[in-house]
Amino acid sequence: MPITPLILGLILGPNLELQFRRALQISAGDYGTLIETPLSKVLYLALVIVLVAPTTVKIIKKFRSRSVK
To answer: Are 55 and 45 in contact (CB under 8 A)?
Structure first.
């Protein structure tokens, strides 16, 4: 397990949680404010692509290798 992401998580995690709680308090608990702006939508989309792309590429390669045989 790489140590760098662990250290970053330990350092930035509490601050991230604090800012998340503040955002929810300001919006009275409405999660919709977290995805209102176009920039946040683009960032969430990029996050989903980064998380899903490796698995999708593996599945596509597996299907291509089966069709070649």
So the answer is: no
DSSP 37: S
Residue entry with tokens 């977290």: 34
Query: Biggest alpha carbon distance in the chain?
Result: 58
What single DSSP character describes residue 27? T
30 contact partners, CB below 8 Å, separation of at least 6? 24
Task: Let me know: does 29 contact 18? Beta carbons within 8 Å.
Answer: no
- Residues 69 and 11: their CA atoms lie apart, in Å, by 49
Q: What is the pLDDT along the chain (69 residues), one digit of tens a residue?
A: 789 989 999 999 999 999 999 999 999 999 998 889 999 999 999 999 999 999 999 999 988 888 766
Q: Which two tokens stand for residue 47?
A: 């996050």
Through-space distance between the first and last CA atoms of the chain, rounded to whole angstroms:
36
